[in-house]
Amino acid sequence: MKKNLETLCVQAGWTPKKGESRVLPIYQSTTFKYETSEQMARLFDLEDEGYFYTRLANPTNDAVAAKINALEGGVGAVLTSSGQAANFFAVFNICEAGDHFITTNSIYGGTYNLFGVTMKKLGIECTFVDQEWDDERIEAEFRPNTKCFFGETISNPGGNVFDIERFAKMAHKHGVPLIVDNTFATPINCRPFEWGCDIVTHSTTKYMDGHATQVGGAIVDSGNFDWDAYGDKFHGLTTPDESYHGLTYTKAFGKKAYITKAVSQLMRDLGSIPSPQNCFLLNLGLETLHLRMPRHCENAQKVAEWLEKNEKVAWVNYSGLKDNKYHALAQKYLPNGSCGVIAFGLKGTREDAIKFMDNLDFICIVTHVADARTCVLHPASHTHRQMSDEQLMEAGVAPDLIRLSVGIENCDDIIADLEQAMAKM
Hints:
The chain is α/β, with parallel strands linked by helices.
């Protein structure tokens, strides 16, 4: 029976049997018992499915991964210890020293640094492109050793909407998968696989959790990319893995080749697992995701319209506004609403933006974003402070940009707090 997203949020992932806990239990155990050595050996050879060590698999973690997989419409998913780990694993699963990949330059500052600095130390080169460039200019950046294209459905912190279908076609034309970070939109508002995306990542720390109680990430595989068609390029998936006695992932696991390799090889060796306790908390958040997202979007729309009319505001970027440059894309990919995050700038200096934030009452200055509570951040001073002004502008992060994450409180109270803070400037 096919279920709607609202039902999947509540029901997917955990189906208790007779006498089992109705609520997903926490399997707080590092290891699991087997009766014979042969049973354990088959698990280590990937010949049987089961649990033997939580770094590779855990029933609580897997139930929540299955729920996120169902929401996105994939063939398999794995949870990670953070969104950063998810993005790293998603790319590193198909890239190695000497390889290259492409990403848009408006991505989250931490991911920008991961791709442009840290992965460079591993011998993997990343080219940053502006998604506003024409196809010819972007396609000129593809190389024979390019392994994937990466983007964010809604960029953090700028709020730019990614043209998924356009870049999926471009990536596939050059024989590589498209990876999309769907954190801000969530599968409630956008399912990238329906537009040609191949792999989705999430920082589950954000809307999926929704209460700022756990840090986590997720990778979901659509199962649609034909790795064997480009076997020489993706030999990690299409040739024998000697660490598993010559097993070839595409032959052994078919459409689940990519996600199986991510678990059995990367998680085995790098170990960026979430705790079962964190996954339990994440599951509680997922159960109300379909209720919270519409409220976030409703509030953000009202706040964005108020900001747009305010004489102290220089500019607002929120795709829900009819005159916004991304409104048409939002209508295509996000017809039910985008998210609760608004980017805007005040008339004045960087110091004016900081003073405005310091004047706020219940809207807090925090590094976090996208939970039930309204919060604010000045990226140039905080999350993106490692970048120069030139890099900030290239990434679409103006020095005066304020990231406002609109929560699910009463919208009149949110606007009143913004208004009194501006009055004191």
